[in-house]
Amino acid sequence: MGASHSHGTASSKSGTSYVVAEQATSSSAQEFFPVPLEILEEIFLHVPANQVVHVCRLVCSQCKEVADSESLWRERCRREGYNLRDSSKTPEDWRLFYFLCKKRRNLLKNPRGEGKMTGWMIKENGGDGWKLEDVMVPHPNEVVKKNFVTSFQMCTKEQVIDLEKEGYSPTFMDKFKPDIKISDWYAPRWDCGCEYSILVQLLDAKQNVIQSYTPDTVFFDQWNDQEWKQKIHVFRDYRRGVRYIRFSHGGKDTQFWAGWYGIRVTDSSVEICPAVDTYGSMRRSLQPRHVAQLIQDSTSMRAVARRNRLHEDGMRARHPQVGVVQLNTMQGVLAFAREVHTEHVLLPATSSSMTGLAVEQDWKLFYFLSKKRRNLLKNPNGAERLNSWEILRNGGDRWVAKEIRQPHPDETIKANFVTSFEMCIKSQLIDLEKKGYSPSVMDHAQPDIKISDWILTRFDCGGSYDIRVELLDQKKQLIEIFLPETIYRGAGREEWKQITYVFHKYGPGVRYIQFTHGGKDLRWWKGHFGIHITGSSVELFPTLDTQTTYVVGGIHLTCAY
Questions:
Q1: N or C: which end of the chain has fewer CB within 10 A?
Q2: Any bridge partners for residue 489, and if so which?
């Protein structure tokens, strides 16, 4: 299977070329890979969504049926947290609902003032002009810490959003007319009256007005409660031709006091989203070509690049001799799921070559192991401080959880654990049966157990790092252990490094996993200058192949069994 084709396009990412045939040949169309539809759906759930529509869907009628199914896109929405506001109203096109939710974001730049006045065009700057201040009273959104403040004469500012540059093509906007949701937060000072106004316009290609939202000016009396108020509006069923959105707001105080006693504004937003109350705007079926218009290549390529960086750092393919993954056959779809989404590897292999990829005999067991895969460690990133961890050693100024110093390859990770000038060690004991892995499953299936940890040292102080992971029996006696040598990292470039290891063919009897790690700084500096740790994980999944690959200190090692 997987015959080569002379036509198609190829792009190279991290040494692997992904070849997409423009049209399946008659030979590939006749190929049949006996994969149950529910398994194929599970595989597609781990393949990039635009690839499912553009590539996997074209492989065969079986793939097309799954790629077009309501259940696939409904489940994708559920897993990624795209929930319905009103569960009694369901989309007629779950695929469109998914892609609109996926792309949904605030199109305004610098809405909360963290970047001072960057991104805003000042239209009026009366009195003492616009100013940026910390919020006087807490905002309902706890991450909002700053607001823009007006003065004693009119202050207005605006942004013009180019929808095509933001990834919403003219064809898409005209055909689907998605909801455009406007939101703005404003508040007065308690001791000074003020006024607030907002104007939002939908514009055509020549920036002529198609539709406007211009509510009455809001006035606040002196001696008010200074609470935050929200202004919300949703544009629906607007006529064709919308290419730009102009967002303008502002105000002033009404006491004519020198300084900044006028209206405060912050957390403004403009979002393209699925219909809020009714899904009438989604009654037209979303075709693959419209997905291309909705999901721009630049966005997709950035996502692929991020995955490939993870792939290089700690999840290198076990079959480096495979240079091309074909996406125009069922064999290629399975290989693609394995190679591109290695962090969600679903497919078992029983040979040392990708071309010899075999299908797991027990599909039911394979399916449920894949479905159940998750991180078994609690609080792996320090988002809940030190909850769920047992502190074994707490030297120096002790463990602390704080915001990360450098962006992590996983953009969702915002915190880490930091060690001090004497050894700090913490641990978690995982009870596999309580996590849903019965003794019979562990003894019969012996799923691979993958360990992963991310570490970083400060630029000005080196650190040491230790990790110990033990597989234990019912009496918590040792069965197998991962205990690499201590890693020493000197001061220098602050860069996240990943340590990974896979327990494979460890034998029957495993009931617990003990995960222990820690470290300290190398200069004995007071405070928290030691090793930074985050993104720790322990996962169980179907056996991948007959090799175990692990990475220590950026070095990839492979052990054959």
A1: C
A2: 463
